[in-house]
RNA sequence: GGAGAGAUGGCAGAGUGGUAAUGCAGCGGAUUGCUAAUCCGUGAACCCGAUUGGGUUCCCAGGGUUCGAGUCCCUGUCUCUCCGCCA
């Protein structure tokens, strides 16, 4: 969320950012509201000052045993105009807040302009798409023929967009998650966290899922939200808190189930495990000083890419164009893995630098010893990686002609020494 | 689910209607000198002002009573204790 004071001081920069997002300039409207708000606030404060003075005088007079009727009468008059002005102040302040909470982050200067994902720009391509001397199958064909991937029972129990994994595939899902977590904690300096999957409204506002994207998440009858990503819980670790500069950067990772309604995705990726209401994901979140966020963004992206390299999977990394950039993001890299069955690259990670956008919403600040005041932290998040989609990638890339699946070397220890999932499951 | 207690600055902790004690820590300064002691100063957000500066708000949140609320009343949130239930 934007700071009104910043918009007041940088209206052109702000409007330019909105324009790149395809939005109308808003600074004039906001600044007008802000001026009216501040004027009313100043008036209110003058009245409060006068009221305080009179109250002190009344207190003094009463102690002396003297009459204070005149003063009490005057305060009564002030109070009436005060409540009117208070009303104006809070209405204007709500109007500004309601406006600001729905405004997306501005794109970084080096984010390319564009309409949609077609305009994203490739920044690197690593590894050669695997070739086969037979026709590679899709992941769900493989999983079902192994007898380890069950969409029918999942549909019977929960409906569409769910899956049940059995035996070696269930273990493979867990193996991938453990491998990712171990890499991020042992090699990349992240601290593993176990966090709630049910959260309050406030947390959803903090990271930007609310108020605009309520329909993309599930809500329980008791008012909890099911997290669509553990970015929500990890980033909110810093909410309503003033960290010490020496505590930064903070790096958290978590494996969690993620829940998405996929309301706008009807008819898209309807087969297989590509797009589910529930999926496992290992998430990375960094909370850093403003001057460090650009470098941290590169680091987090590298951490995610390394997982794919260790798994021997070909990928490409793109920088999202302005039209494809998420609501809270200042700049985003998507990592796309090669899927031989689909014969194309598919998104498997999204790494974003949110700058101070989330920290304003969450009121997440840091303080330097001996320096007056505090500053907002920068927050970053990245999937490292989406486990369900990584499972898809392993199946399609490591399949053999007979339908058996080779286990990538790095996962063998996590599979209890198993090197191949045999064709009969 | 039942009963009770509580929420005050980075931390600890007073304050039951008159405008937030005190201690510790951190930071700045002074002084004395030897691994430290002592003394002084120092909360946050916001508004006005060209600067020195002035002011408002903030005791979990939101309402209410009052000339005046940390203190009284109502609603909510969270924490703790005991009981019940439970993976």
Would you write up a description of this structure?
By secondary structure, the chain is an alpha+beta fold. It has two domains: 4-100, Orthogonal Bundle (Helix Hairpins), CATH 1.10.287; 117-421, Bira Bifunctional Protein, Domain 2 (BirA Bifunctional Protein, domain 2). Helices cover 40% and strands 20% of the residues. It is built from twelve helices and 17 strands. It has helices at residues 4-9, 11-20, 27-63, 69-101, 139-146, 151-158, 167-186, 201-207, 231-235, 293-310, 357-362, 387-397; strands spanning 121-126, 149-150, 164-165, 191-192, 198-199, 225-226, 241-244, 250-259, 278-288, 315-319, 331-339, 344-353, 364-367, 375-376, 378-386, 405-406, 420-421. The strands form five sheets. An eight-stranded mixed beta sheet has the order 1-10-11-12-15-9-8-4. Helix 5 (139-146) crosses helix 12 (387-397) and helix 7 (167-186) crosses helix 12 (387-397). The chain is elongated, with a radius of gyration of 27 Å. The two termini are 50 Å apart. The mean pLDDT is 92. The chain binds one RNA strand of 87 nucleotides through residues 38, 41-42, 44-46, 48-49, 51-52, 54-60, 62-63, 68, 71-76, 79, 200, 242, 244, 367, 369-374.
């Amino acid at each position: 969320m934007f700071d009104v004071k910043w918009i007041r001081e940088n209206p052109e920069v702000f409007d330019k950012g909105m324009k790149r997002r395809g939005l109308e300039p808003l600074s004039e409207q906001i600044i007008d509201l802000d001026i009216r708000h501040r004027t009313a606030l100043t008036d209110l404060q003058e009245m409060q000052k006068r009221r305080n003075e009179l109250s002190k005088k009344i207190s003094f007079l009463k102690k002396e045993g003297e009459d204070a009727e005149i003063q009490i009468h005057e305060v009564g008059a002030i109070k009436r105009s005060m409540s009117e002005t208070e009303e104006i102040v809070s209405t204007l302040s709500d109007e500004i807040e309601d406006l600001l909470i729905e405004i997306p982050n501005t794109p970084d200067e080096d984010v390319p302009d564009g309409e949609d994902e077609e305009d994203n720009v490739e920044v690197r391509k690593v590894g050669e798409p695997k070739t086969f001397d037979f026709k590679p199958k899709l992941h769900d064909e493989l999983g079902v023929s192994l007898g380890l991937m069950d969409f029918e029972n999942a549909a019977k129990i929960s409906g569409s967009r769910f899956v049940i994994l059995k035996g070696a595939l269930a273990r493979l899902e867990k193996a991938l998650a453990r491998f990712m977590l171990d890499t991020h904690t042992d090699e990349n300096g992240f601290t593993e966290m176990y966090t709630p999957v049910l959260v309050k409204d406030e947390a959803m506002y903090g990271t930007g899922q609310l108020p605009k994207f309520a329909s993309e998440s599930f809500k329980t009858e008791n008012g909890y939200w099911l997290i669509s990503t553990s970015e929500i819980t990890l980033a909110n670790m810093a909410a309503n808190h003033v960290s010490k500069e020496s505590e930064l950067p903070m790096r958290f990772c978590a494996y969690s189930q993620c829940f998405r309604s996929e309301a706008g995705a009807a008819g898209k990726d309807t087969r297989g495990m590509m797009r589910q209401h529930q999926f496992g994901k290992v998430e990375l979140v960094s909370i850093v000083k403003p001057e460090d966020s650009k470098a941290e963004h590169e680091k987090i992206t590298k951490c995610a890419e390394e997982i794919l390299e260790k798994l021997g999977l070909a990928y490409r990394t793109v920088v999202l164009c302005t039209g494809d950039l998420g609501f809270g993001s200042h700049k985003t890299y998507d990592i796309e893995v090669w899927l031989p069955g689909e014969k194309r690259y598919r998104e498997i990670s999204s790494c974003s630098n949110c700058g101070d956008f989330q920290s304003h919403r969450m009121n997440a600040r840091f303080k330097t010893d001996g320096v007056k005041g505090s500053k907002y932290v920068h927050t970053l998040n990245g999937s490292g990686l989406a486990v369900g989609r990584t499972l898809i990638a392993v199946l399609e890339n490591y399949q053999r002609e007979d339908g058996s699946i080779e286990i990538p070397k790095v996962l063998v220890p996590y599979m209890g020494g198993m090197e191949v999932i045999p064709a009969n499951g």
